[in-house]
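Usage example:
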Amino acid sequence: MSALLEVEALTKHFPVRRGLLGRAIGLVRAVDSISFTIEVGATLGLVGESGCGKTTTSKLVLGLERPTSGAIRFQGEDVLTLDRAALRRYRRSVQAVFQDPYASLDPRMRVGSIIAEPLVINERMDRAARRRRVLELLELVSLPPRAAELFPHEFSGGQRQRVAIARALALSPRLVVLDEPVSALDVSIRAQILNLLRDLQKRLGVSYLFIAHDLAAIAHMSHTIAVMYLGQIVEWGSADAVALEPRHPYTQALFSAALPIDFDASREEIVLSGEVPSPLSPPAGCRFHTRCPHVMPRCATEEPPLRPHANRLVACHLY
Amino acid sequence: MPPLVVDVRDLRTHLVTRWGTVKAVDGVSFALGEGETLGLVGESGSGKSMTCLSLVRLVPRSAARALGGQVLLDGEDLLAKTEAEMQKIRGRRIAMILQDPMSSLNPVFSIGMQMREPVALYHGLRGRALTARAAELLAAVRIPSPAQRLRSFPHQLSGGMRQRVVGAMAIAAPPRLLIADEPTTSLDLTIQSQYLGLLTELQERHRFALIFVTHNLGIVAKMCDRVAVMYAGRIVETGPVRRLLTRPAHPYTRALLESIPRLGTRSERLTAIEGQPPDLARLPRGCAFAARCPSVMDRCRAEAPPEIAVEPGHWTRCWLEMPASGTASSGAPA
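Running the assembly step on the lines above writes:
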């Protein structure tokens, strides 16, 4: 496999200002020097609790935010130094599907126009060719051709998410950012969409950056999983290694909190005390040390680097 | 069997709307003893929340034309009470914790102001004793430095802390029945485990009956003694949690369990439930799940199945479980 997207030491800091004209009074380290790779045709699952920097990461990858420092390479090319035309090509290759299909589709546009919009903007296509492409995309997400004539409110949540997926695929992207794509859907509908996304990946060879808080869904969908805590990646490895044999104490607690349905799963539950510290003033040393059940003296002073251990990368002084 | 706290019999809540009569809750029965937990599971629109609101009679008054059946709390029928009597029961004998703590708390009053109200009402305390009792309650839900927190406003607390404050208010009385409607859905995973632990601890101390509404079967497995699975306003299957999650009888329960990704199932394809839940204003004549059921028979479309006992304490509304001899033995909880 070859790398499609490589992210290196990516950092995004947001200044916190007070007042109207605002003197900066602090810095939110939303994403702090993270590195990961997404392979062609593979899925990277990004896991972490609210405020850990998942969404900022996805915005950086989508080019909606400019990083403070670091590099994003797409097919070997540095995205941050691209000229306008190349940047436009990059943006076509990276698309997104968001959580709420009630908010992400314009209620006054017909589904056909919604799906065709990226084509109108980016491709020189005549009307007939566009129409053919829309029907092709509808077929791809298993919606009937007549769906093109209807408005979003005539669809259920699951069907709307299919429309959003069809729109994201209109320009044949190489990478799709899936930001909580099934969280707003009913339990019985989620499996339909997850299956569809996997079928599409097999058929089109597209890569996914999959963000969700449902850990079982992440483990099911992803080839590799990166776990974030307070803007940093604490563990990154193959989905099975991270989900089934987590090594970082935070990953362990997280996956033990994802309660299993099976009764024979004899896993001990780790309940963390305290809450996630503010990213305005993250703890010194290892950022997790204030809640870690295995905390040692050096954790408070020395930041553990992300280094290889047991078929993955993990940032912890235990290893 | 512990002493019975709630006994719901054939509860019906029908809402009259422009689009027709919506049978939001249609013949729901269950019973719950002291210290017991019932998990109420189902999709949005299946009637979980409406069932809970009907128990405390908080359904939208203008729309609820038909509220039928019985809700017995320690033997008294709540549906026969006057509104004034209900006001004394709500928050005192039945408490609720809702999904979004911000909608249960008033943003312009301090936590202390809001805590003092239920405490003053139920304990008749005033002044310093009142403040001390409110702080005690915050300490009981493990809020650090409770005396200072009484001066905080809701927006100054994290989501987990706010939900703890709601929990503290719920146990101010303490209640006989606690209804928790998706209490952890807005919380992060590690905070969710803390909160679930706290609820279990409070239940052990106060022995209240707990109705836990959720769509997360993992939480059900951890928290509940029994489960009731709702579909289109009815309980389609109920039984002890372990039995129901390992040997479900209703095709909907089975499909739900199979459609959920589990850790270590990467290679397998999820079994999706095709189609959509039915429109509650236009329910089919027969079984409401028939259109999506993989084992549907002619009878399912013609006739809605009754409660059929699979074994004592475990029953389902599915013709597949009908004994060959023909007569249905009702397995509704006594």
